[in-house]
Design a protein that fits this description.
Layout lengths: L11 H8 L6 H9 L8 H12 L2 H5 L3 H6 L5 H22 L8 H12 L6 E7 L5 E9 L9 H10 L4 E7 L9 H15 L4 E8 L5 E3 L8
Parallel strand pairs: 3-4
Antiparallel strand pairs: 1-2, 1-3, 4-5
Helix pairs in contact: 2-3, 6-7, 8-9
Amino acid sequence: MAIRDWHEHDRPREKLLNFGPGSLSDAELLAIFLRVGVRGQSAVELAQSLLDHFGSLHALLNSDETEFCRAKGLGQAKYVQLKAVLEMSRRHFESGLKKGDAFTDPQAVAHYLIHTLGFQQREQFGVLLLDQQHQLITFEVLFTGTLNQASVHPREVAKSALDHHAAAVILTHNHPSGDPTPSPSDIELTQTLSEALNLLDIRCLDHIILGDFGRWHSLAQHQQMP
């Protein structure tokens, strides 16, 4: 049965308009992005088969161009469209942070970071550099790969903060495993960096760790900051 023959409350577009985007499943959201299905499959059925193929919505969104375009019903045009949507989403959250009031809310910061680091397959460490009013100056990714105290150098974090005349920073990195729970080495690294920055009169406000499916962990929220 074609989607147009479904009951109005079951059609993804009408369901979104009537009940909001949170009421849609991953397959229904993806179907709206796809717009049309393929021979023998509605857009929702195609979307579900793609989720089964990639394993999750996260994996699909994180796939490279070759892997994405090889899948049934997709192609370079859809890949470009997807990357544009993700970039618009990232810029939307970034513009919200630059208004100056978002750093009182770790969730708003985490949502921006999710769209910046949340889809990376390799571990990356970055810093949000803030001014005296804790407004965003810029965000920089400083290290990529397996992170520990040996690979994340305090002098590079301090140099970035000094170069941008930052008064405070928020540390962040992603866990490609998907679990944002901080490891003992994450907490130890936070301690080391905080102490180094404090010597320069630069405050370390938080360390936000990103997982998959929008999960994140704020060390400040959990009273784990030094």
